[in-house]
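ok here's Diacylglycerol kinase family protein:
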Amino acid sequence: MISNPHATTQSGLMLRRVMAALREVEGLRVRSVLTHRAGHAAEMCRGLRREDYDVVIAVGGDGTVNEVINGLLGEVEAAPAAGEVPALAVVPTGSANVFARALGYQPFPDLVARQLAQALRADQRRSICLGTWNEGWFAVNAGFGIDATVIERVEQVRSRGFAATPLRYLVVSTEAWLRSQIKPPSIEVRATSATGGGLHLHRMPLLFASNTNPWTFLGPLPVVTNPGNSFDQGLGLFGLTDIRGVGGVASMLHLIGVGHQRRLEKWIRRRTVQFDDATAVEMVSPTPEHFQVDGEYEGDYTRVTLGSVPAALEVFAPREEPLSVRRTVWRTLRDFVRVR
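and the structure:
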């Protein structure tokens, strides 16, 4: 069990509750370690095989999950088969926890611990697709342009000791949009799908790829851009062709889950791009643009290549399927009351 002590909801009390739930699993022996710096989780997982450990439990946010995956699988071209490396389990203690919640886990660590214990006890595992970028892996999403700019600005805020709340993301997103009105990013996109379809677009100010559905959460609310996307198929692409003016504001609000009425969607449809089951994506910009992977700022690039690898990793997950928006909100409120 690899724990990130700096994760948003991490605490000693929470870890004790997780360990108490895991001790109820017959035959389970747990070695618990803490990360001490960025990249430490990847270092600890590098070279591990199934004969070393049956499962690696990542206790942290999507960034910790990303590190564990990259450590287990290594370089994309030389990655081992899913059955050769430990399976992955998650106890989400980050701010969004998109990966765990998309698998069907509840957003509260106390409840997740019981779900995870049951999954381990019943050997509830599944194989999932993973995204690739250049020579690395991602589990949730990757973004080029304004999306990555927002992540980079939030990281600056967090480095000054402030929490990454949904309100702060909204404020930073608004600032990034206002600055982009002067000189918006210009991204050329080429993509192909598993069925042979293609996409070629010029001068996109924003484009991101998601490996999950929803692509993120705004507090308890799932934000859906590609409804047909899942861990069992290629990448879902979503982009905006224009972010200027009133239509640009509406499109950005649509991106974070606001304004999904039929009349408004019809109005902004010409500004949005959706492309499902992508297996190869190339994004090129004339000038370096911010790029993010699984909610972590990776740097500035002029060219990024994305891909999708089927059945890349085994994960432990609840039996139930991810919930609808209405049921997710209801269960989140109900479980919040239970925990409190």
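+1. Residues 1 and 31 are 6 Å apart (CA to CA).
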